[in-house]
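During the no-cost extension, the postdoctoral fellow (Dr. R.K.) reprocessed legacy sequence entries with the updated structure-token encoder. One reprocessed record is reproduced below for audit purposes.
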Amino acid sequence: MLPLCTAAQKSQKAIKKEISQARDKVKEGKNLDKVEASMRKLLKDSANRDNVKIWNVLIEAVRGQYAQANEKLYLKQKQDTAALFKLASQLFTDACSLDTIDAHPNKKGRVVPVYRQRNAHNLMIIRPNLYHGGYYFIMKGNYQEAYHLFSQYIDCARQPLFSSIHADELGKWMPQAAYGAMYCGNRMDCPGKVLRYKEVAQQDTAHLDRVWQFMCEAYYQLGDTVNYVNTLRKGVSKYPAYPYFFPRLVAYEQHRGREDEAKKVVDRALATDSTNVIFLLGKCSVLLNLGQYDECIRLSRHLVEQDDSLADAHYYAGLSFFNKAILQEKKLMLSELTKKQRQKARGKIMALYEQSRPYLERYRQLSPKDVRKWSAPLYTIYFNLNMGKEFDEIDKLRNEYRKHIK
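Re-encoded structure tokens follow.
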């Protein structure tokens, strides 16, 4: 065993020498990246992982690189801004790792961290760069990196390393950082990350409408219908004019076959703004589904007169005329009428189809991709009005569409 003990002693002596040399280089501010690499190499050995001296030199090497990069940026010298923010992030990661080791109980079983207060103070000076770095990476489209920096900024509040820092100081910009994290989670299509800081993000009242929208989208992705609908309702109540919540809540109630509830949503919204086009279109939808076709036509026509580019207004007017024609056809089939009475009834039906046609054709122009909604009624209209060329074209298009969706 004597050769093994001697080798171990030599190894420890070599490590102490390497640490000492690294510490000298840190003081000189030279080759800090190489110092960092050498300390990380030592920490890969499990025997060194709890060596606070190695961690301390490593942190000082990273801190020195950050200071040099920050100085270059301040002096408007050539400097990679992204690298500066990543160094700040690395400092927080390394300092938290050291703090975990530093907080191990001593021989008397007491926890007396040596480096905690100093590191917490130094990190609080650069903590704003986690926040600014998050928004920097958002602008660069690097949502993963942005989310990481926002998370570090927010998680300081629960890290033992920062237990001596007053909550008010830690809380500065916290809601805005949580909103940034939520935005990144949304852009990365990751509902778990969207919802991780939702309580904090809701304190950012300047973006609360977007916060609730992101929450709705996350709940929808997760299939959490209860929270999805509850958040939609809060959104409609607080921000009735915001374009996201109202149409989706109306659509949800309609999908459940609860037209009366959908009508209540519409009426409450219109009570806040009787001229809002989105609310009026919602009312058209409700009137159509309730079978109140004449009222739906009246309101839809009014909206079309105001703005001919409102696709849904054309659709609701056209489908109301179309549905009236279908109802008349059904009545005609069940009625016992004379030939003259039947011809007169057929004339009224054809007139309804003719009134429906321009609205649905205009809807097709405005929403060409929504084949499912306009192709079926136009097919029936062209057939009944004996419009051969148009009928052949829509028939071919419908067949192609069926093949495509299969």
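Residues 1-10 have pLDDT under 50 and may be disordered. The first helix runs from residue 2 to 28. The remaining legacy entries will be reprocessed before the final report is submitted.
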